[in-house]
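Q: Hi! First time doing this. I have a protein sequence and I read that you can turn it into a structure. Is that right? Here it is:
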Amino acid sequence: MKKLSVILLLAISLGSCSTYQKALKSEDSAYQTSVADEMFKAEKYKKAIKLYDLVITREGMKPNYRSVVFNDGKANYILGKYELSAPILKRFNLTYPVGEHVEEARYLEAMSLYNMSEVYSLDQHITFDAITKFDDYIQKYPESEFIEQAKLYKKELVEKLEKKAYEAAKQYNTIGEYTRDYTAAIVALDNFMLDYPGSIYKEDALFYKFDSAYKLAINSVYSKMNDRIQTAMKAYEGLVNYNGNTKYKEKADKMLTRLEKESKQFSNI
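A: Yes, that's right. Below is the predicted 3D structure, encoded as C-alpha cells:
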C-alpha cells in the first residue's frame, strides 16, 4: 500500500509538472490562466506568476483579465516581492477603479508600500505614498475588516515622518555647540511643532527649544541678554505647561535657576 501511495503521488506530481510545462509553451491565454489559477490555489505562487505574466504581456489590461492582474499582484505580495506587487496593484487600481477585487487590491497596494517604507533617516517618498494610499482606503472602506490595521499602519508611518522631522530640527540644537546659532534651532523646533502639533515628540521638542533659548541667552552679549533670558523663561513655561511632570524637569529646573540668577543683574535697570 505504501508503494502504491508513493507511485500515485509521483504520478500526480509529474502530471502537474507536465501541465505547467505545457501551459508555459501555450499561446492560449485562457488555458494559461486556468493553469495559473490552479497553481495559485495550490500556493505555487512562483509558477502562477510566470503564467500570469505571460498572459498580461499578451493580453494587456483587458477587462476580462482583471483577475489575472489582481492575482499576479497578490501572489507577488504573498512572496514578499513588494517592489513588484506595488506597481502591479497600482496598475490594477487605476485600470479597474470599481468592481471585483478593488477593496483588497487597494489595501494590498498600501501594504506593499508600507513594507517598502524606508528607515526614518532615509528619504521618505515611499512612506508619503503609503500614507496617501492608507488615507484613501480608510475613507473609502470605513467598514472594512482591515480598517483597524490600516489605521495602525498609517499611524506608524506618520510617526516615522515625525521622527525624521524631529531629528532634523533637533540637529540644529546639536550643531549649535559649534555654530552658536541657536536661533536656527528655535525656529526649526517651532516649525516642527506647527507641522506636527500632536506629535509624540512634542515634549522633546519643547525641551530642546528651551535648551536652545537657554544657551542663546547664557552665551549672549550683554545688550541682548535680558530679552533672551525672558524668551528662555517663556520656553521653560511652555515645557512645564505641556507636562508638569516632564522627564526633563530636574534638568530644566536647574537651567531656570541659572536664568533667574542672571536676570537679577537687570532688575534695577
